[in-house]
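Pilot study result, target chain (319 residues):
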Amino acid sequence: MSENNKAEDQWVKGIIKETFAEQKKARRWGILFKGLTFTYLFVTLLLILDKAPNSDTKAEQSHTAMVQVNGVIAADQEANANSIVTGLRAAFKNEHSKAVMLVINSPGGSPVQSGYVYDEIKRLRTLYPDKKLYAVIAELGASGGYYMAVGADEIYADKASLVGSIGVTASSFGFVDLMEKVGVKRRHFTSGEHKAFLDPFSPEKEDEAEFWQQVLDVTHQQFIKVVQEGRGDRIKEAEKKGKLYSGLIWNGEQALTLGLIDGLGSPGFVAREIIGAEEIVNYSVKPSAFSEIIEKLGISIGSGIANQLATQTSNLRLN
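Predicted structure:
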């Protein structure tokens, strides 16, 4: 083969190679743009559906209005005061709701968030005196969950539900001895004598521990006062026997005996037998469909871990 033929052959091969490379790049870009277009349309559709009005016509008929409290009570959780209160307001406001049912399945959480809901319950009961509020405890109605429940006219639970835990807790760790063993020195600069009194890497001081215990005791007394106001004479005998405010938790049958609840029954039982409106309409405020999908994809895992660590180390909780 002549030199000219060889050069021509190499040139043709180069053209073919470049052509295939360009086609490959084009396919990649095509796939990318198609994916982005699909994602854009999918997100847009979710946002439209999320803002679409509720087409459920049950709320236009006589019914039992239900608001759910699920999980830990905290500002950044599903069971936050803003969502719960929004649901309660809508439930009371609807003229077709015969009564409102607060269905609780929570181990407790923030005393502030629980207090917000309790105060709003009292306001709504005054604003709508002819519409009763029933609290129904599912598996667990403890601590801040029970704090909310005592604002209701009546409380119901299953015989095996766990009820009570009227107390306050705040926990942390102490790493001072471990730091000394591994040779780590703490360098923490503050302005204020007690600014770092909850720091787990600093030695505990007796006067700061006493102060923090006073904070917990005062918060506990606030909890007790709310229970006494909500339950009234129904818990008098239990109070005489003691341990009611010790942080212990009881099953539904025991809670009924102590006066912590008014009867045994499920949400369906309360709607059907107590309220007399078997049809239940859920007024709970739910996260947007888009938010739920994002969370399921795992984007919120990092913040969830951070929140959990923060909760374990410093948060004051009703418990």
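One observation from the pilot: The first strand starts at residue 63 and ends at 70. A full batch analysis is planned for the follow-on phase.
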